[in-house]
């Protein structure tokens, strides 16, 4: 079909649909980690008064290591389904994967909301919550991979809109938390309203996905038969950020695992053009070219997930009890992280420094290890081993801003540099390898959080 025959996106409905789908896919992760104080309050005991969404709890609830477990059980499914992607894509139809995942996520989040009204002892409540976290994130991994497979047939603008929705999921969750806290209703009603919010978002995602086949533009692109590896192709973050509408708003740590989409038609800037070689590129050969960049990606997320949110969610305000003390963690930990992370990722649309030949990148990545002791030495009450060297709120806010910006920028930078280090026909393999190492970094960081929590 000629270019002029391509249908128009009437009222931008297709773009809005993919934006909402992007928002819905990452709401579960963000709503769970932002509500850590609520869960810790429930785990403190059935008669606990610590149920306010914004309160910080470092008492009996810490025996469950909730912060650490919710992070680990959110990231392990991502690593697992990264390895199982090719099997799932071949055996299960795309529509079944998407709609089935959305429906299961909706039901499990409805269960989480219903449990707000159910009195349970800490042990069973912890077990049910952890099971929900595991299954919700497992289906989220399948859902996101499937949607990116569909986006592979669409213009890059729609990939950018999808990523924009994902990028706003963390900010949306933090704002929902603040609105629930400021509503003035009792703690139980506030928590119920908070957990109903992602249910509405996921239901809206289902509606948007069901409407796509009835939109002419979506039918035109999605009806195309993809190439055999289409479902696993991921476009590089650099190309998404350079889209005309500049909608490539980035995501919080988990989201980055799904930003890598390869464009086989795009030539790397620093490699001479040569004919595509027959046969499948060697994984070992590709790995030898990108191993340092992949290692940097692993280390970036290992550092980030080792302290966020397991350690950072424990930091409290050093000021006297009051409104600021209550709102301190939702604002300075979750909202500030997501905003600055978005800012850091957006910077790669303007410059890429250092380049792939520079040894500064490994140095900058290694310097982020300093954030681990810095956060551990902030104002965390009831510590038993380490002293508090940075009690003032300004220290934590400063650390968080640099921590989040550096996370966003270095993640986006490594994803942009990896495809430039290989030949055109090797970029698909490079993308698969980077996706795997990204998931590995997330899982390693979540595992290390247990150690750092024990050292406090």
Automatic annotation (TrEMBL):
The chain crosses the membrane at residues 12-39, 69-89, 96-116, 128-149, 161-185, 191-212, 290-315, 327-348, 360-382, 394-417, 429-452. Its main location: membrane. It is a multi-pass membrane protein. One of its GO terms (molecular function) is uridine transmembrane transporter activity. Keywords: Cell membrane, Glycoprotein, Membrane, Phosphoprotein, Transmembrane, Transmembrane helix, Transport. It is found in: Apical cell membrane; Basolateral cell membrane. InterPro entries: ENT1/ENT2 (IPR034764), Eqnu_transpt (IPR002259), MFS_trans_sf (IPR036259). One of its GO terms (cellular component) is apical plasma membrane. GO terms for biological process: adenine transport; adenosine transport; guanine transport; hypoxanthine transport; thymine transport. It catalyses: hypoxanthine(out) = hypoxanthine(in); cytidine(in) = cytidine(out); inosine(in) = inosine(out); guanosine(in) = guanosine(out). Belongs to the SLC29A/ENT transporter (TC 2.A.57) family. Bidirectional uniporter involved in the facilitative transport of nucleosides and nucleobases, and contributes to maintaining their cellular homeostasis. Functions as a Na(+)-independent, passive transporter. Involved in the transport of nucleosides such as inosine, adenosine, uridine, thymidine, cytidine and guanosine. Also able to transport purine nucleobases (hypoxanthine, adenine, guanine) and pyrimidine nucleobases (thymine, uracil). Involved in nucleoside transport at basolateral membrane of kidney cells, allowing liver absorption of nucleoside metabolites. This is Equilibrative nucleoside transporter 2. It comes from Pipistrellus kuhlii (Kuhl's pipistrelle).
């Amino acid at each position: 079909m000629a270019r002029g025959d391509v249908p128009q996106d009437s009222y931008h409905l297709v773009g809005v649909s993919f934006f909402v789908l992007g928002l819905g896919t990452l709401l579960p992760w963000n709503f769970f980690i932002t509500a850590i104080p609520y869960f810790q309050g429930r785990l403190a005991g059935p008669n606990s008064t610590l149920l306010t969404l914004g309160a910080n709890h470092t008492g009996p609830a810490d025996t469950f290591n909730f912060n650490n477990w919710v992070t680990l059980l959110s990231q392990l499914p991502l690593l697992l389904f990264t390895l199982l992607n090719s099997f799932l894509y071949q055996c299960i139809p795309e529509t079944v994967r998407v709609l089935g995942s959305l429906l299961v996520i909706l039901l499990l989040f409805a269960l989480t909301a219903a449990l707000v009204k159910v009195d349970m002892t800490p042990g069973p409540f912890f077990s049910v919550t952890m099971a929900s976290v595991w299954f919700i994130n497992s289906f989220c991994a399948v859902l996101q991979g499937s949607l990116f497979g569909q986006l592979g047939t669409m213009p890059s603008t729609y990939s950018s809109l999808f990523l924009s929705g994902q990028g706003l999921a963390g900010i949306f969750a933090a704002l929902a938390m603040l609105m629930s806290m400021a509503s003035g209703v009792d703690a139980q009603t506030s928590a119920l309203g908070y957990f109903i919010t992602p249910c509405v978002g996921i239901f809206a995602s289902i509606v948007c996905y069901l409407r796509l086949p009835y939109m002419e533009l979506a039918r035109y692109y999605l009806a195309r038969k993809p190439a055999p590896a289409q479902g696993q192709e991921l476009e590089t973050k650099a190309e998404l950020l350079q889209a005309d509408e500049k909608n490539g708003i980035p995501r919080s740590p988990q989201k980055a695992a799904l930003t890598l989409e390869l464009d086989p038609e795009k030539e790397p800037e620093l490699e001479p053009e040569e004919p595509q070689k027959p046969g499948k590129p060697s994984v070992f050969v590709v790995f030898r070219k990108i191993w340092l960049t992949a290692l940097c990606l692993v280390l970036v997320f290992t550092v980030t997930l080792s302290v966020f949110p397991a350690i950072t969610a424990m930091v409290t305000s050093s000021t006297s009890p009051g409104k600021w003390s209550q709102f301190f963690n939702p604002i300075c930990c979750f909202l500030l992280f997501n905003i600055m992370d978005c800012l850091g990722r957006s910077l790669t649309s303007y410059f890429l420094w250092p380049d792939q030949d520079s040894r500064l990148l490994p140095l900058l990545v290694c310097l982020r290890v300093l954030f681990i002791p810095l956060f551990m030495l902030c104002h965390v009450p009831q510590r038993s081993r380490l002293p508090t060297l940075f009690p003032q709120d300004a220290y934590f806010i400063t650390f968080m801003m640099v921590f989040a910006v550096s996370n966003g920028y270095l993640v986006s930078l490594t994803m942009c540099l990896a495809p430039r280090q290989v030949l055109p026909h090797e970029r698909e393999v490079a993308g698969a390898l980077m996706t795997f190492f990204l998931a590995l970094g997330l899982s390693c960081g979540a595992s290390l959080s247990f150690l750092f929590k024990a050292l406090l």
